[in-house]
Write a structure and sequence with these properties.
Layout: E1 6-9, H1 15-22, H2 30-34, E2 47-52, E3 55-69, E4 72-84, H3 93-107, E5 112-117, H4 120-128, E6 132-142, E7 152-155, H5 164-172, E8 175-176, E9 195-200, E10 203-211, E11 221-223, H6 232-242, E12 247-252, H7 258-263, E13 269-279, E14 290-291
Parallel strand pairs: 4-5, 8-14, 11-12
Antiparallel strand pairs: 1-2, 2-3, 3-4, 5-13, 6-12, 6-13, 7-9, 9-10, 10-11
Length: 295
């Protein structure tokens, strides 16, 4: 007779049993997992477990995030660390855990769930529990063209940071998913070296996540610039003026820059990463929204 599987949320004293499942599979950092409730977001009910005779055989957690959609900031849950013990797979455990997680957040009035996936098996699982592929991340190579634009890309300094939230808010009106976490700052003094600012004279009109060439990114990596009031073709030209060598540009299928980049003659290589969305209740109307890759 099959052993009974018990499903419940995290309870005090569970960490050792959870880590026996997750650590050998390199799913988590032990210290981070033990300190998971130190921040304001994660809650015990957001961690769902499957147990057989006190042994944890399945795990998933959901972290609340806010995204701007339908003209307002709304709460979503992002799902991570979905894992089932090797000997307990193909019994529907992962699907049940995610369904329980969704039910909890739906009762709390959340609008839906967003996640990213890069494995075929994971994508199929998520589709079974109601997710649809929202977009796929794409990469292309941008060729330098000095003097192509009057706009200027510069390094970020502390006084620039106050402009970023306003740019995010305007960008989010036409691009999704775009976070609107007012209690957390995306770009700050400790990570601003990884960003560049787009200037038109004295005005800041955009910014971008910007990795210089390295062992990890051979040609560097620039993510879609947040420049809500600048024509996309002009943004492309500004980047061509700013780069001394070809750079990799990461965008999303259906994004604001995809068609303009194709018009420039750029070709795209899809990455393995897709962004998926599950609505809770009424379907989310994405008419008029461009897609945006994770930041």
């Amino acid at each position: 007779m099959p052993e009974k599987i018990v499903y419940r949320h995290w309870q005090p004293g569970d960490d050792d049993a959870v880590l026996e499942l997750l650590l050998p599979a390199e799913q988590v950092d032990e210290n981070i997992y033990r300190d998971k409730f130190e921040g304001p977001h994660l809650e015990p009910e957001g961690i769902r477990l499957a147990l057989v005779n006190e042994r944890v055989v399945g795990h998933v957690w959901g972290e609340p995030w806010s995204f701007f959609i339908e003209d307002k900031c709304q709460r979503f849950v992002t799902v991570g660390t979905v894992f089932v013990a090797q000997d307990m797979r193909r019994q529907g455990i992962a699907a049940r855990l995610m369904q329980d997680l969704h039910a909890h957040f739906q009762r709390k009035g959340y609008r839906g769930s967003i996640l990213d996936a890069d494995e075929v098996a994971a994508i199929r699982l998520y589709q079974k529990v109601g997710y649809q592929i929202l977009t796929q991340e794409l990469r292309t190579q941008l060729i330098p063209n000095p003097n192509a634009s009057h706009l200027e890309w510069t390094e970020t300094n502390l006084k620039d940071l106050s402009a970023f939230p306003q740019l995010d808010e305007r960008w989010a009106k036409h691009n999704f998913p775009m976070r609107c976490e007012r209690e957390s700052i995306k770009v700050h003094q400790y990570n601003m070296g990884g960003y560049r600012v787009l200037r038109q004279g004295e005005n800041i009109v955009g910014y971008a996540r910007w990795d210089e060439p390295s062992e990890y990114y051979r040609h560097g990596l620039i993510r879609d610039p947040i420049a809500p009031d600048v024509d996309p073709m002009e943004v492309i030209a500004s980047l061509q003026s700013a780069i001394p060598t070809p750079r990799t540009w990461q965008t999303a299928e259906g994004g604001r820059y995809e068609a303009p980049l194709r018009a420039y003659g750029c070709t795209f290589e899809p990455t393995t990463t897709v962004i998926m969305l599950s609505s809770f209740g009424q379907e989310i109307d994405l008419t008029g929204y461009h897609r945006t890759a994770w930041w």
